[in-house]
User: Fold this.
Amino acid sequence: MNITKKKLGFASVALVLILMGTANADVKQLTRDNGAPVGDNQNSYTAGEHGSVLLQDVQLIQKLQRFARERIPERVVHARGTGVHGEFVASKDISDLTKATVFTKGEVTPVFVRFSTVIHSKGSPETLRDPRGFATKFYTDEGNWDLVGNNLPVFFIRDAIKFPDMVHSLKPSPVTNRQDPNRFFDFFSHVPESTHMLTWLFSDFGIPANLRQTDGWGVHAYKFIDAQGDVSYVKFHWKTKQGIKNLTPKQASKIQAKDFSHATNDMYENIAAGNYPKWDLLIKVLKPSEFANLVYNPLDATKMWLDIKETKVGTMTLNRMPTNFFQDTEQSAFSPANLVPGIEPSEDRLLQGRVFSYSDTQMYRLGANHQQLPINRTHVAVNNWNQDGAGNQGKQTSDVNYQPSRKDNLVESDQARYDSKPVSGVSQQKKISKQNDFAQAGVLYRSFSKKDKQNLINNLAGDLGQVTDNETKHIILSYFYRADKDFGTRIIKAVNGNLDKVKSLSM
Ligand code: HEM
Assistant:
Protein backbone atom coordinates (compact mmCIF):
# COMPACT_ATOMS: atom_id res chain seq x y z
CA MET A 1 0.00 0.00 0.00
CA ASN A 2 1.49 3.36 -0.95
CA ILE A 3 1.35 6.37 1.39
CA THR A 4 -1.41 8.16 -0.53
CA LYS A 5 -3.62 5.08 -0.35
CA LYS A 6 -2.87 4.65 3.38
CA LYS A 7 -3.77 8.29 4.09
CA LEU A 8 -6.95 7.86 2.09
CA GLY A 9 -7.76 4.75 4.19
CA PHE A 10 -7.53 6.69 7.47
CA ALA A 11 -9.38 9.64 5.95
CA SER A 12 -12.27 7.40 4.98
CA VAL A 13 -12.38 5.93 8.53
CA ALA A 14 -12.65 9.49 9.86
CA LEU A 15 -15.31 10.34 7.30
CA VAL A 16 -17.40 7.32 8.33
CA LEU A 17 -17.08 8.38 11.98
CA ILE A 18 -18.17 11.93 11.14
CA LEU A 19 -21.17 10.56 9.25
CA MET A 20 -21.96 8.33 12.25
CA GLY A 21 -21.86 11.46 14.43
CA THR A 22 -19.11 10.08 16.70
CA ALA A 23 -16.14 12.06 15.44
CA ASN A 24 -13.90 13.93 17.83
CA ALA A 25 -10.37 15.30 17.77
CA ASP A 26 -8.87 12.03 19.07
CA VAL A 27 -10.02 9.61 16.40
CA LYS A 28 -8.05 6.41 16.87
CA GLN A 29 -7.66 3.55 14.44
CA LEU A 30 -9.09 0.26 15.69
CA THR A 31 -6.32 -2.35 15.56
CA ARG A 32 -5.70 -6.03 16.14
CA ASP A 33 -3.27 -7.11 18.88
CA ASN A 34 -0.39 -6.93 16.41
CA GLY A 35 -1.16 -3.24 15.84
CA ALA A 36 -2.55 -3.70 12.32
CA PRO A 37 -5.68 -1.69 11.42
CA VAL A 38 -9.02 -3.50 11.41
CA GLY A 39 -11.11 -3.14 8.27
CA ASP A 40 -14.48 -4.34 9.53
CA ASN A 41 -15.37 -5.06 13.15
CA GLN A 42 -19.09 -5.58 12.48
CA ASN A 43 -19.27 -8.28 9.77
CA SER A 44 -17.43 -11.58 9.61
CA TYR A 45 -15.54 -12.46 6.42
CA THR A 46 -17.75 -14.87 4.44
CA ALA A 47 -17.48 -16.76 1.18
CA GLY A 48 -20.12 -14.67 -0.55
CA GLU A 49 -23.56 -13.91 0.81
CA HIS A 50 -24.55 -17.55 1.34
CA GLY A 51 -21.14 -19.09 2.02
CA SER A 52 -19.38 -20.10 5.25
CA VAL A 53 -17.32 -17.84 7.50
CA LEU A 54 -13.67 -17.96 6.49
CA LEU A 55 -11.04 -19.21 8.97
CA GLN A 56 -8.70 -16.53 7.68
CA ASP A 57 -10.79 -13.78 9.33
CA VAL A 58 -8.04 -13.13 11.88
CA GLN A 59 -9.99 -10.30 13.51
CA LEU A 60 -12.91 -12.64 14.26
CA ILE A 61 -10.65 -15.50 15.42
CA GLN A 62 -8.50 -13.23 17.61
CA LYS A 63 -11.54 -11.60 19.22
CA LEU A 64 -13.06 -14.98 20.09
CA GLN A 65 -9.73 -16.39 21.32
CA ARG A 66 -9.06 -13.41 23.57
CA PHE A 67 -12.63 -13.39 24.85
CA ALA A 68 -12.43 -17.08 25.77
CA ARG A 69 -9.31 -16.37 27.82
CA GLU A 70 -10.53 -13.29 29.74
CA ARG A 71 -10.81 -15.03 33.10
CA ILE A 72 -7.83 -15.97 35.21
CA PRO A 73 -8.20 -18.22 38.24
CA GLU A 74 -9.70 -16.25 41.09
CA ARG A 75 -7.69 -16.05 44.30
CA VAL A 76 -8.12 -19.29 46.25
CA VAL A 77 -9.10 -17.10 49.23
CA HIS A 78 -9.89 -13.35 49.35
CA ALA A 79 -11.40 -13.56 45.84
CA ARG A 80 -13.70 -10.56 46.19
CA GLY A 81 -11.77 -7.31 46.51
CA THR A 82 -11.59 -3.59 45.85
CA GLY A 83 -8.32 -1.73 45.25
CA VAL A 84 -7.50 1.92 45.93
CA HIS A 85 -4.35 3.97 45.35
CA GLY A 86 -2.94 6.46 47.82
CA GLU A 87 0.11 7.48 49.81
CA PHE A 88 1.74 6.89 53.16
CA VAL A 89 3.56 9.68 55.01
CA ALA A 90 5.97 8.64 57.78
CA SER A 91 5.67 10.91 60.80
CA LYS A 92 8.12 9.68 63.43
CA ASP A 93 11.84 9.01 63.49
CA ILE A 94 12.14 5.32 64.41
CA SER A 95 15.66 4.80 63.11
CA ASP A 96 16.51 3.38 66.56
CA LEU A 97 14.18 0.47 65.62
CA THR A 98 14.47 0.00 61.87
CA LYS A 99 16.60 1.08 58.93
CA ALA A 100 13.59 0.72 56.57
CA THR A 101 13.56 3.96 54.56
CA VAL A 102 9.76 3.93 54.32
CA PHE A 103 9.84 5.08 57.96
CA THR A 104 12.24 8.00 57.46
CA LYS A 105 10.34 10.93 59.01
CA GLY A 106 8.57 12.92 56.26
CA GLU A 107 9.06 10.23 53.58
CA VAL A 108 6.09 9.99 51.20
CA THR A 109 5.53 6.51 49.73
CA PRO A 110 2.90 5.62 47.10
CA VAL A 111 0.65 2.73 48.17
CA PHE A 112 -1.99 0.44 46.69
CA VAL A 113 -4.48 -1.15 49.10
CA ARG A 114 -6.78 -4.07 48.33
CA PHE A 115 -9.69 -4.68 50.70
CA SER A 116 -11.32 -8.10 50.43
CA THR A 117 -13.62 -10.67 51.92
CA VAL A 118 -12.06 -14.07 52.57
CA ILE A 119 -14.19 -17.09 51.95
CA HIS A 120 -16.67 -16.59 49.15
CA SER A 121 -16.18 -16.23 45.42
CA LYS A 122 -15.49 -13.14 43.35
CA GLY A 123 -19.14 -12.28 42.81
CA SER A 124 -20.29 -12.79 46.41
CA PRO A 125 -22.04 -10.09 48.48
CA GLU A 126 -20.01 -7.76 50.70
CA THR A 127 -22.46 -8.15 53.57
CA LEU A 128 -21.40 -11.61 54.73
CA ARG A 129 -19.81 -12.40 58.11
CA ASP A 130 -16.15 -12.90 57.27
CA PRO A 131 -12.81 -11.34 58.19
CA ARG A 132 -11.86 -8.58 55.75
CA GLY A 133 -8.46 -8.54 54.05
CA PHE A 134 -6.54 -5.26 54.32
CA ALA A 135 -3.44 -5.60 52.12
CA THR A 136 -1.10 -2.67 51.51
CA LYS A 137 1.66 -2.49 48.94
CA PHE A 138 4.20 0.24 49.73
CA TYR A 139 6.26 1.17 46.64
CA THR A 140 9.30 2.18 48.73
CA ASP A 141 12.63 3.47 47.42
CA GLU A 142 14.20 0.14 48.47
CA GLY A 143 11.66 -2.09 46.74
CA ASN A 144 8.09 -3.11 47.52
CA TRP A 145 6.97 -3.87 51.05
CA ASP A 146 3.61 -5.62 51.35
CA LEU A 147 1.80 -5.53 54.69
CA VAL A 148 -0.84 -8.21 54.08
CA GLY A 149 -3.23 -7.96 57.01
CA ASN A 150 -6.86 -8.32 58.03
CA ASN A 151 -9.45 -6.16 59.79
CA LEU A 152 -9.27 -8.34 62.91
CA PRO A 153 -6.18 -8.37 65.15
CA VAL A 154 -5.69 -12.14 65.49
CA PHE A 155 -6.14 -15.31 63.44
CA PHE A 156 -7.91 -18.68 63.83
CA ILE A 157 -4.79 -20.86 63.80
CA ARG A 158 -1.12 -20.48 64.68
CA ASP A 159 0.49 -22.94 62.27
CA ALA A 160 0.43 -22.77 58.44
CA ILE A 161 0.01 -26.54 58.18
CA LYS A 162 -3.63 -26.14 59.29
CA PHE A 163 -4.56 -23.44 56.76
CA PRO A 164 -5.80 -25.51 53.77
CA ASP A 165 -7.99 -27.68 56.07
CA MET A 166 -9.39 -24.61 57.79
CA VAL A 167 -10.24 -22.97 54.48
CA HIS A 168 -11.83 -26.20 53.18
CA SER A 169 -14.08 -26.31 56.24
CA LEU A 170 -15.14 -22.67 55.84
CA LYS A 171 -15.68 -22.80 52.06
CA PRO A 172 -18.93 -24.23 50.69
CA SER A 173 -19.30 -28.00 51.02
CA PRO A 174 -17.83 -30.05 48.15
CA VAL A 175 -21.13 -31.96 48.04
CA THR A 176 -23.74 -29.21 48.26
CA ASN A 177 -21.73 -26.07 47.45
CA ARG A 178 -23.33 -24.50 50.55
CA GLN A 179 -21.39 -23.07 53.50
CA ASP A 180 -22.24 -25.22 56.50
CA PRO A 181 -21.56 -24.40 60.19
CA ASN A 182 -21.52 -28.16 60.85
CA ARG A 183 -18.35 -28.40 58.82
CA PHE A 184 -16.41 -25.41 60.16
CA PHE A 185 -17.41 -25.97 63.79
CA ASP A 186 -16.34 -29.61 63.40
CA PHE A 187 -12.92 -28.33 62.33
CA PHE A 188 -12.71 -25.60 65.00
CA SER A 189 -13.73 -28.05 67.75
CA HIS A 190 -10.23 -29.48 67.22
CA VAL A 191 -8.61 -26.02 67.34
CA PRO A 192 -9.08 -24.39 70.76
CA GLU A 193 -6.75 -21.55 69.79
CA SER A 194 -9.48 -20.34 67.39
CA THR A 195 -11.66 -19.19 70.35
CA HIS A 196 -10.24 -15.66 70.37
CA MET A 197 -10.72 -15.12 66.62
CA LEU A 198 -14.20 -16.71 66.67
CA THR A 199 -15.19 -14.24 69.39
CA TRP A 200 -14.04 -11.34 67.19
CA LEU A 201 -15.69 -12.80 64.09
CA PHE A 202 -19.09 -13.45 65.67
CA SER A 203 -19.16 -10.03 67.29
CA ASP A 204 -20.40 -7.18 65.09
CA PHE A 205 -16.77 -6.73 63.92
CA GLY A 206 -17.51 -9.70 61.62
CA ILE A 207 -19.53 -7.44 59.28
CA PRO A 208 -17.83 -4.05 58.82
CA ALA A 209 -20.23 -1.37 57.51
CA ASN A 210 -17.87 -0.39 54.66
CA LEU A 211 -14.19 -0.36 53.74
CA ARG A 212 -13.39 3.04 55.25
CA GLN A 213 -14.71 2.52 58.76
CA THR A 214 -12.59 -0.45 59.70
CA ASP A 215 -9.14 -0.89 61.20
CA GLY A 216 -6.45 -3.10 59.69
CA TRP A 217 -4.00 -5.30 61.57
CA GLY A 218 -0.74 -6.94 60.54
CA VAL A 219 -1.69 -9.77 62.97
CA HIS A 220 1.79 -11.33 63.10
CA ALA A 221 4.89 -10.09 64.81
CA TYR A 222 7.52 -8.92 62.34
CA LYS A 223 11.13 -8.03 63.06
CA PHE A 224 12.55 -4.54 62.81
CA ILE A 225 16.32 -4.38 62.25
CA ASP A 226 18.18 -1.12 62.77
CA ALA A 227 21.41 0.02 61.10
CA GLN A 228 23.48 -1.64 63.87
CA GLY A 229 21.72 -4.97 63.33
CA ASP A 230 19.72 -4.75 66.58
CA VAL A 231 16.41 -6.58 66.49
CA SER A 232 13.00 -5.51 67.86
CA TYR A 233 9.72 -7.33 67.34
CA VAL A 234 6.83 -5.25 66.05
CA LYS A 235 3.09 -5.50 65.39
CA PHE A 236 1.30 -3.15 62.96
CA HIS A 237 -2.15 -1.59 63.32
CA TRP A 238 -3.98 0.64 60.81
CA LYS A 239 -6.33 2.80 62.88
CA THR A 240 -9.17 4.28 60.84
CA LYS A 241 -9.68 8.02 61.16
CA GLN A 242 -13.28 7.57 60.00
CA GLY A 243 -14.32 5.76 63.21
CA ILE A 244 -15.30 2.08 63.28
CA LYS A 245 -18.78 1.12 62.09
CA ASN A 246 -20.14 -2.43 61.96
CA LEU A 247 -23.45 -3.98 60.95
CA THR A 248 -25.85 -6.30 62.73
CA PRO A 249 -27.12 -9.22 60.62
CA LYS A 250 -30.48 -7.46 60.33
CA GLN A 251 -28.90 -4.28 58.96
CA ALA A 252 -26.69 -6.36 56.66
CA SER A 253 -29.60 -8.31 55.14
CA LYS A 254 -31.51 -5.11 54.54
CA ILE A 255 -28.54 -3.68 52.62
CA GLN A 256 -27.91 -6.95 50.78
CA ALA A 257 -31.47 -7.02 49.47
CA LYS A 258 -30.73 -3.82 47.57
CA ASP A 259 -26.98 -3.81 46.97
CA PHE A 260 -24.44 -6.61 47.22
CA SER A 261 -21.53 -4.20 46.51
CA HIS A 262 -22.40 -1.60 49.12
CA ALA A 263 -18.86 -1.36 50.54
CA THR A 264 -17.22 -0.92 47.14
CA ASN A 265 -19.87 1.60 46.13
CA ASP A 266 -19.24 3.54 49.32
CA MET A 267 -15.51 3.74 48.52
CA TYR A 268 -16.11 4.93 44.92
CA GLU A 269 -18.59 7.56 46.11
CA ASN A 270 -16.31 8.92 48.84
CA ILE A 271 -13.24 9.09 46.63
CA ALA A 272 -15.27 10.81 43.88
CA ALA A 273 -16.51 13.36 46.44
CA GLY A 274 -12.92 14.08 47.57
CA ASN A 275 -13.65 12.56 50.97
CA TYR A 276 -10.38 10.64 51.12
CA PRO A 277 -10.20 8.01 53.88
CA LYS A 278 -7.18 8.00 56.19
CA TRP A 279 -5.59 5.56 58.58
CA ASP A 280 -2.83 6.12 61.13
CA LEU A 281 -0.21 3.38 61.26
CA LEU A 282 0.51 2.40 64.88
CA ILE A 283 3.18 0.01 66.10
CA LYS A 284 3.75 -2.01 69.24
CA VAL A 285 7.31 -3.01 69.98
CA LEU A 286 8.81 -5.80 72.10
CA LYS A 287 12.45 -6.62 72.70
CA PRO A 288 13.33 -10.33 72.58
CA SER A 289 14.38 -10.07 76.26
CA GLU A 290 10.76 -9.20 77.19
CA PHE A 291 9.25 -12.40 75.76
CA ALA A 292 9.84 -14.49 78.87
CA ASN A 293 7.72 -12.15 81.04
CA LEU A 294 4.58 -12.74 78.96
CA VAL A 295 1.98 -15.40 79.81
CA TYR A 296 1.50 -16.05 76.09
CA ASN A 297 3.90 -16.58 73.21
CA PRO A 298 4.19 -13.18 71.45
CA LEU A 299 4.88 -14.95 68.14
CA ASP A 300 1.50 -16.70 68.29
CA ALA A 301 -0.89 -15.13 65.75
CA THR A 302 -3.90 -15.99 67.95
CA LYS A 303 -2.71 -13.42 70.51
CA MET A 304 -2.75 -9.65 70.77
CA TRP A 305 -0.01 -7.85 72.64
CA LEU A 306 -2.34 -6.48 75.27
CA ASP A 307 -0.87 -3.90 77.67
CA ILE A 308 1.91 -2.85 75.28
CA LYS A 309 1.64 0.81 74.29
CA GLU A 310 1.03 1.83 70.68
CA THR A 311 3.01 4.52 68.86
CA LYS A 312 1.92 6.34 65.72
CA VAL A 313 4.52 6.19 62.94
CA GLY A 314 2.63 7.60 59.95
CA THR A 315 -0.63 8.19 58.12
CA MET A 316 -2.06 6.71 54.92
CA THR A 317 -4.52 8.53 52.67
CA LEU A 318 -6.39 6.74 49.87
CA ASN A 319 -7.29 9.11 47.05
CA ARG A 320 -7.56 7.39 43.64
CA MET A 321 -9.57 4.49 42.25
CA PRO A 322 -7.95 2.27 39.62
CA THR A 323 -8.66 3.17 36.00
CA ASN A 324 -9.11 -0.52 35.27
CA PHE A 325 -10.30 -3.05 37.85
CA PHE A 326 -8.71 -6.09 36.24
CA GLN A 327 -5.33 -4.53 35.55
CA ASP A 328 -4.86 -3.10 39.03
CA THR A 329 -7.07 -4.96 41.48
CA GLU A 330 -7.32 -8.44 40.00
CA GLN A 331 -3.71 -8.56 38.90
CA SER A 332 -2.35 -7.17 42.15
CA ALA A 333 -0.24 -9.70 43.98
CA PHE A 334 0.53 -9.05 47.65
CA SER A 335 2.94 -11.25 49.52
CA PRO A 336 4.33 -11.32 53.05
CA ALA A 337 7.60 -12.28 51.30
CA ASN A 338 7.82 -8.79 49.78
CA LEU A 339 9.97 -7.24 52.48
CA VAL A 340 12.63 -4.52 52.47
CA PRO A 341 15.85 -4.08 54.46
CA GLY A 342 14.91 -3.30 58.07
CA ILE A 343 11.74 -5.45 58.08
CA GLU A 344 11.89 -9.25 58.36
CA PRO A 345 9.46 -12.04 59.18
CA SER A 346 9.41 -13.17 62.79
CA GLU A 347 9.61 -16.86 63.64
CA ASP A 348 5.76 -17.02 63.89
CA ARG A 349 4.92 -20.42 62.31
CA LEU A 350 1.87 -19.08 60.52
CA LEU A 351 3.79 -16.20 58.98
CA GLN A 352 6.63 -18.48 57.92
CA GLY A 353 4.15 -20.54 55.86
CA ARG A 354 2.67 -17.38 54.33
CA VAL A 355 6.11 -16.18 53.27
CA PHE A 356 6.19 -19.22 50.96
CA SER A 357 2.50 -19.52 50.01
CA TYR A 358 1.65 -16.19 48.36
CA SER A 359 4.34 -16.03 45.67
CA ASP A 360 3.71 -19.69 45.00
CA THR A 361 -0.02 -19.21 44.36
CA GLN A 362 0.68 -16.06 42.33
CA MET A 363 3.06 -17.94 40.05
CA TYR A 364 0.08 -20.18 39.31
CA ARG A 365 -2.62 -17.46 39.24
CA LEU A 366 -0.67 -14.79 37.33
CA GLY A 367 2.52 -16.46 36.12
CA ALA A 368 6.20 -16.45 36.93
CA ASN A 369 6.61 -12.81 35.90
CA HIS A 370 3.70 -11.40 37.94
CA GLN A 371 6.03 -8.93 39.68
CA GLN A 372 6.61 -7.27 36.27
CA LEU A 373 2.93 -6.36 35.85
CA PRO A 374 2.50 -2.57 36.19
CA ILE A 375 0.52 -2.75 39.47
CA ASN A 376 3.09 -5.04 41.08
CA ARG A 377 6.23 -3.53 39.56
CA THR A 378 8.56 -1.88 42.05
CA HIS A 379 9.47 1.76 41.37
CA VAL A 380 13.17 0.91 41.66
CA ALA A 381 15.33 -0.93 39.12
CA VAL A 382 15.26 -4.74 39.35
CA ASN A 383 18.73 -6.13 38.77
CA ASN A 384 19.05 -9.89 38.85
CA TRP A 385 19.25 -12.87 36.55
CA ASN A 386 15.88 -14.42 37.23
CA GLN A 387 14.89 -14.71 33.61
CA ASP A 388 12.55 -15.82 30.85
CA GLY A 389 9.25 -17.52 31.69
CA ALA A 390 5.78 -16.82 30.32
CA GLY A 391 4.81 -13.18 29.90
CA ASN A 392 8.29 -11.78 30.44
CA GLN A 393 8.34 -8.01 29.86
CA GLY A 394 11.95 -7.43 30.91
CA LYS A 395 14.56 -5.63 28.86
CA GLN A 396 17.48 -7.98 29.38
CA THR A 397 20.20 -7.30 26.82
CA SER A 398 23.42 -8.45 28.51
CA ASP A 399 25.36 -11.56 27.54
CA VAL A 400 26.21 -12.02 31.23
CA ASN A 401 23.17 -13.60 32.89
CA TYR A 402 24.93 -14.94 35.97
CA GLN A 403 26.47 -13.48 39.09
CA PRO A 404 29.27 -13.08 40.10
CA SER A 405 31.06 -12.18 36.92
CA ARG A 406 34.24 -10.24 36.10
CA LYS A 407 32.36 -8.60 33.21
CA ASP A 408 29.55 -7.17 35.30
CA ASN A 409 29.49 -5.31 38.60
CA LEU A 410 26.23 -6.51 40.12
CA VAL A 411 26.97 -6.52 43.85
CA GLU A 412 25.30 -7.56 47.09
CA SER A 413 24.73 -5.17 49.98
CA ASP A 414 25.99 -5.94 53.48
CA GLN A 415 23.18 -3.76 54.83
CA ALA A 416 20.61 -6.13 53.31
CA ARG A 417 21.89 -9.33 54.96
CA TYR A 418 19.26 -11.21 56.95
CA ASP A 419 19.32 -10.98 60.74
CA SER A 420 21.76 -13.47 62.21
CA LYS A 421 20.14 -15.12 65.17
CA PRO A 422 21.63 -17.83 67.35
CA VAL A 423 19.62 -21.05 66.97
CA SER A 424 19.92 -24.30 68.85
CA GLY A 425 17.74 -27.23 69.83
CA VAL A 426 16.28 -30.40 68.40
CA SER A 427 14.11 -30.42 65.29
CA GLN A 428 10.53 -31.24 66.25
CA GLN A 429 6.83 -31.32 65.31
CA LYS A 430 5.16 -30.02 68.44
CA LYS A 431 2.69 -27.40 69.58
CA ILE A 432 4.13 -24.21 71.05
CA SER A 433 4.36 -23.89 74.82
CA LYS A 434 2.32 -21.15 76.56
CA GLN A 435 -0.74 -21.87 74.36
CA ASN A 436 -3.08 -19.91 76.63
CA ASP A 437 -5.99 -20.54 74.25
CA PHE A 438 -8.89 -18.87 76.06
CA ALA A 439 -7.84 -15.94 78.24
CA GLN A 440 -7.79 -13.22 75.55
CA ALA A 441 -11.21 -14.27 74.22
CA GLY A 442 -12.48 -13.64 77.76
CA VAL A 443 -10.77 -10.22 77.89
CA LEU A 444 -12.43 -9.34 74.58
CA TYR A 445 -15.87 -10.50 75.73
CA ARG A 446 -15.64 -8.46 78.91
CA SER A 447 -14.57 -5.36 76.94
CA PHE A 448 -17.86 -5.39 74.98
CA SER A 449 -20.84 -3.24 75.95
CA LYS A 450 -24.10 -4.90 77.06
CA LYS A 451 -25.50 -4.53 73.54
CA ASP A 452 -22.33 -5.85 71.86
CA LYS A 453 -22.35 -8.90 74.16
CA GLN A 454 -25.98 -9.60 73.26
CA ASN A 455 -25.26 -9.24 69.53
CA LEU A 456 -22.30 -11.63 69.87
CA ILE A 457 -24.51 -14.23 71.56
CA ASN A 458 -27.22 -13.82 68.89
CA ASN A 459 -24.75 -13.98 65.99
CA LEU A 460 -23.01 -17.04 67.38
CA ALA A 461 -26.25 -18.83 68.25
CA GLY A 462 -27.40 -18.33 64.65
CA ASP A 463 -24.55 -20.55 63.38
CA LEU A 464 -23.73 -22.79 66.36
CA GLY A 465 -27.45 -23.50 66.75
CA GLN A 466 -27.34 -25.26 63.35
CA VAL A 467 -24.72 -27.78 64.48
CA THR A 468 -26.39 -31.16 64.79
CA ASP A 469 -23.49 -33.14 66.26
CA ASN A 470 -23.89 -32.87 70.03
CA GLU A 471 -20.22 -33.55 70.79
CA THR A 472 -19.01 -30.83 68.40
CA LYS A 473 -21.49 -28.31 69.77
CA HIS A 474 -20.49 -28.97 73.39
CA ILE A 475 -16.77 -28.89 72.73
CA ILE A 476 -17.17 -25.47 71.09
CA LEU A 477 -19.37 -24.33 74.00
CA SER A 478 -16.70 -25.44 76.45
CA TYR A 479 -14.18 -23.15 74.71
CA PHE A 480 -16.39 -20.10 75.19
CA TYR A 481 -17.14 -21.19 78.76
CA ARG A 482 -13.43 -21.41 79.47
CA ALA A 483 -12.95 -17.93 78.00
CA ASP A 484 -15.56 -16.42 80.30
CA LYS A 485 -18.20 -18.11 82.45
CA ASP A 486 -20.90 -15.53 81.64
CA PHE A 487 -20.15 -15.75 77.90
CA GLY A 488 -20.26 -19.56 78.05
CA THR A 489 -23.43 -19.75 80.11
CA ARG A 490 -25.32 -17.38 77.85
CA ILE A 491 -24.36 -19.14 74.62
CA ILE A 492 -25.16 -22.55 76.20
CA LYS A 493 -28.64 -21.22 76.94
CA ALA A 494 -29.04 -19.71 73.47
CA VAL A 495 -28.34 -23.03 71.72
CA ASN A 496 -30.01 -25.33 74.28
CA GLY A 497 -26.70 -26.79 75.47
CA ASN A 498 -26.11 -28.72 78.66
CA LEU A 499 -24.14 -26.81 81.31
CA ASP A 500 -23.02 -29.96 83.16
CA LYS A 501 -21.66 -31.49 79.97
CA VAL A 502 -19.83 -28.24 79.16
CA LYS A 503 -18.38 -28.12 82.69
CA SER A 504 -17.08 -31.66 82.39
CA LEU A 505 -15.48 -30.84 79.01
CA SER A 506 -13.88 -27.73 80.53
CA MET A 507 -11.92 -29.62 83.23
C1 HEM B 1 -0.65 -19.88 56.74
C2 HEM B 1 -1.67 -19.06 56.69
C3 HEM B 1 -2.13 -18.45 55.41
C4 HEM B 1 -1.98 -18.88 54.13
C5 HEM B 1 -1.28 -20.14 53.65
C6 HEM B 1 -2.61 -17.91 53.28
C7 HEM B 1 -2.69 -18.01 51.91
C8 HEM B 1 -3.26 -17.08 51.08
C9 HEM B 1 -3.38 -17.19 49.66
C10 HEM B 1 -2.92 -18.40 48.86
C11 HEM B 1 -3.94 -16.06 49.19
C12 HEM B 1 -4.25 -15.72 47.73
C13 HEM B 1 -3.16 -14.82 47.21
C14 HEM B 1 -3.30 -14.48 45.75
O1 HEM B 1 -3.85 -15.26 44.97
O2 HEM B 1 -2.79 -13.39 45.38
C15 HEM B 1 -4.18 -15.22 50.32
C16 HEM B 1 -4.71 -13.96 50.24
C17 HEM B 1 -4.76 -13.12 51.32
N1 HEM B 1 -4.44 -13.41 52.62
FE1 HEM B 1 -3.80 -15.13 53.34
N2 HEM B 1 -3.11 -16.90 54.03
C18 HEM B 1 -2.84 -17.19 55.35
C19 HEM B 1 -3.14 -16.44 56.45
C20 HEM B 1 -3.49 -15.14 56.39
C21 HEM B 1 -3.48 -14.23 57.51
C22 HEM B 1 -3.06 -14.58 58.93
C23 HEM B 1 -3.85 -13.03 57.02
C24 HEM B 1 -3.96 -11.72 57.73
C25 HEM B 1 -3.06 -11.34 58.63
C26 HEM B 1 -4.08 -13.15 55.58
C27 HEM B 1 -4.44 -12.14 54.73
C28 HEM B 1 -4.62 -12.28 53.37
C29 HEM B 1 -5.07 -11.21 52.51
C30 HEM B 1 -5.37 -9.78 52.93
C31 HEM B 1 -5.15 -11.73 51.22
C32 HEM B 1 -5.61 -11.01 49.97
C33 HEM B 1 -4.48 -10.23 49.34
C34 HEM B 1 -5.02 -9.48 48.16
O3 HEM B 1 -5.82 -8.54 48.39
O4 HEM B 1 -4.68 -9.83 47.03
N3 HEM B 1 -3.86 -14.46 55.23
N4 HEM B 1 -3.78 -15.86 51.46
